[in-house]
Amino acid sequence: MRSRLIIATALLAFTVLVSGCHSVKALVPPNLRAPEDTSGGLNQAKQALQQATPCCTTFADFSYQDALPWQPKKFALGPGSMVANLNGDRSYFLSFSLPRESQVPYRVAVKSELNGRWLRASYLFAPTVVVLDEAFQPIDSKDVGLCEHMGWTDATSGAFGSVDITDKRARYLVLYSSAKQQSSSTYWEQSPAAFSAEAPVKMAAAGSFKVPHGPDGTVWIGMMDKSFQDAVNNAICAKPEQGNGVLSTLREAIPLPGLGNNASKSDATKATASPTNSTNNDATPPATTSAKG
Predict the structure, then answer these.
(1) Where are the domains of the chain?
(2) Could you report how far apart the first and last alpha carbons of the chain are, in Å?
């Protein structure tokens, strides 16, 4: 009876394996499956932005009643947010008045969160920051470069960047996303892993390790604080260069006994042997040649 049970169990396991991905995929709940169309959410976000009605076409049209937060604060940009049309490029935006009492230079912290449940189907709102004077004329404009940092909390995890305010004329700040930013991407150290349809317990890595930029998302902005400064300092901005390995680096940094240079050993041997050779040569009289004269 026991042998029949073992055989039946083996046949059942074999049937599951032979059935392939279709049977296994049916066992995985839909909310745990990775999306097949990784760009679907991004395309919908772009379409929603193009269908929105812009409120502003120049920086003078913006409202600057909100002061820049004294520490990074969370903002959601997307459908329902105000849209600007700057030189034909649409973007959701935020606008702030800068603190008059702060002495330049000072730093503004920026962070974007991943927009999407799966990394392989996520995107980021990549900010562009414009600093304006009292007449709402641009003093400085910068596409903020984002660098990935994974901290212990959600507040210290994401894509970080910063902007330095160095001009005494700075009065206002606008955050939006330029066309160049929206068409770019940010390096991400972690692999875009997702549950595989063939094996739910196996994480399948795929992708280029770059997260595309999109038109909406969650953004943090405010005066730089210590936690954000630490994240900016330790963030990863690009793929690290490949080295020669740990053992090779240790050999170069720390000389190990018995691993000296063979050439040095050979030179030392020759140096030890040379006095003996010199003595022998001195003991042998030099050959003379008679000259006829």
Answers:
(1) 30-234
(2) 122
